[in-house]
Amino acid sequence: MRLLIALLALTTSFSVLSAPKANLWPYWNVSNEQSTDTISHQSWQNILDEYLVMEGQHTLFRYSAVSKKDKRLLEKYITMLSSLTPQSYSKDEQYSYWVNLYNALTVNLILDNYPTKSITKIGSFFSFGPWGQNIISIDGKELTLNDIEHRILRPIWNDPRTHYALNCASLGCPNLQPLAFTAENTERNLEKAANGFINSDKGALVSSNTLRLSSIYEWFIADFGAEEDLFEHLSKYRGELSGYDGKVNYDYDWKLNGK
């Protein structure tokens, strides 16, 4: 019976109780603000240009079409990023570094396990997805996707729009942005990503007197503040949500964002 209960728990959707909290890893909270060095993300941009397609409200990735040459290009890009010491760059340069790395690692992970119906099917038998597994070594430290998101990006930058920048290869996730993040375009990219998600049905869908929000807003409500703060954030991009006081429920689609 205990085994059956464990198996059932593994098949349930990601819950607010299991959403990782922001927990700073101080080792990475160092920067060199005098540095003018930049990191090239052109290889990642080339991949995005070649394999991202818009379909309705979704940006889909053509995993099945990725050539061996471009798979090697992606792996070479990830290796290049892993060879750097991000703390030696400015905070602005670091932000784009970590966001692009997270997204590139996620795409590469799907390609390594393709075909798959969902990223949640990847990982050990007793895990919900691959987020907790060591996936890359940087500056001598083994990191997971969870480390990048919840121990670096969220606690260091404290910007809830980071949730719109990271893509988990799922239809319910904010779209993978067509422009690689750079220190120069981060603000524009974040605003575009936030606006696009909140104005999509997967971000916020109003039906009768019920508002269906993405589960992101339930899992990570601490990043947005109290419910009043959340609706202030949402209404900044979608005015009709200002002062909403009806019923709210949450949903998320874990199906692969593939084509």
TrEMBL record:
- Where does the record locate the signal sequence feature? 1-18
**Lineage: superkingdom:** Bacteria
Residue span, DUF547 domain: 87-198
Keywords attached to this entry: Signal
Q: Which InterPro entries match?
A: DUF547
Q: Which Pfam families match?
A: DUF547
- UniProt name for this protein: DUF547 domain-containing protein
